[in-house]
Design a protein that fits this description.
By secondary structure, this protein is of the alpha+beta class. The chain has 2 domains: about 100 residues, no CATH class; about 110 residues, no CATH class. The protein is about 40% helix and about 20% strand. It has 10 helices and 7 strands. A hairpin with a 4-residue loop joins strand 1 and strand 2. Helix 4 runs parallel beside helix 7.
């Protein structure tokens, strides 16, 4: 079954609307129109709502957002869900077990202007003993630095690379952050993205699906 052939129960959608939303219908329509737009299929929308609900991050104030890039292998746009490192920390903090992180450690290629690798350790409290348990992750410059739109990477190389390492460590230590990627981690993906337009027929079908759900979602 293709994404655009997915049928959705409006009651299932209703359960994905967060408690802080003043209006289920307005929230649903805002996410579809302002966050996903014409790029997102119904499957993308459901997944995005699931992640936003699970992490309790508010997409209406850009705590979490969706980016679409063309995937050659899939032959269609592929969604990635992104946030800042602060957003990942917030999700970890709400578990009650986040115990901070170390300063980033860097290694440099000899005479290199930029760091070769950054390593960060995130600490999680053992729920039984209260012990701080370390989880480390590394990020390599060659894997994350984009070749285009790299102004911030050249201006603050250690900061950008450390964000990637910390995001990886947070996902390893706190499963609730799975599926979330920091903007810094995804910068390089923009180099490989090919701009493609969604067909008018697909857009029309998605608008129809959205309206059908809106008509059945309770609450103004």
């Amino acid at each position: 079954m293709k994404d655009d052939e997915l049928t959705v129960d409006s009651k299932a959608i209703q359960k994905l609307i967060p408690d802080f939303a003043p209006s289920p219908k307005i929230y649903f329509n805002t996410i579809k129109e302002q966050i996903l737009g014409n790029s997102g299929s119904m499957a993308d929308l459901i997944y995005f709502l699931q992640v936003a609900k699970r992490t309790n991050l508010d997409p209406t104030i850009r705590q979490i957002y969706a980016i679409f890039r063309w995937d050659k292998a899939l032959g269609r746009q592929k969604m990635s869900i992104q946030t800042g490192v602060d957003g990942l920390r917030s999700v970890a903090e709400r578990t009650g077990y986040y115990a901070g992180s170390s300063e980033a450690e860097f290694t440099y290629i000899k005479d290199g202007q930029y760091p070769d690798k950054a390593r960060i350790t995130v600490y999680k409290l053992n729920p039984k003993t209260g012990e701080r348990m370390p989880t480390s992750a590394s990020a390599k410059w060659s894997e994350y630095k984009p070749s285009q739109n790299d102004f911030m990477w050249k201006k603050m190389p250690e900061t950008m690379l450390s964000k990637c390492a910390e995001a990886k460590a947070l996902r390893k230590a706190f499963p609730v952050t799975q599926g979330l990627y920091s903007t810094a981690e995804m910068n390089q993906a923009d180099d490989m993205a090919e701009p493609k337009k969604v067909s008018e027929a697909v857009i029309a079908k998605r608008v129809k699906e959205t309206q059908k759900i809106l008509d059945n979602v309770k609450g103004e």
